[in-house]
Design brief:
By secondary structure, the chain is mainly α. It is 31% helix and 0% strand. The protein has one domain (9-57).
C-alpha cells in the first residue's frame, strides 16, 4: 500500500514499475488551493530551524507549548 497527500511524479513512476496492476483511489479530482501562496528560500542547513521558529512565531494560531 502507498499513501500520500502529495504524490510526486517520481513515486508514480515507481508505482507503475513495481505495482503495475494496483488499484488507485484519488480523493481529489482537481487540486484547488485558492488563497494559498507558496514561497521558498534557500538557506544554510544550520539556519533552517531558526527561520522556521521565527516564521511560526508570526502565525497567530500556533501556540508554543
Amino acid at each position: 500500500m502507498l499513501f500520500s497527500a502529495t504524490f510526486p511524479i517520481v513515486v508514480k513512476g515507481f508505482k507503475d514499475k513495481h505495482i503495475p496492476d494496483c488499484h488507485e483511489i484519488n480523493l481529489m479530482d482537481e487540486l484547488t488551493l485558492i488563497g494559498v501562496t507558496q514561497y521558498y528560500v534557500y538557506l544554510e542547513e544550520k539556519k533552517k530551524v531558526d527561520v522556521l521558529n521565527y516564521l511560526f512565531s508570526k502565525v497567530p494560531y500556533i501556540h508554543n507549548y
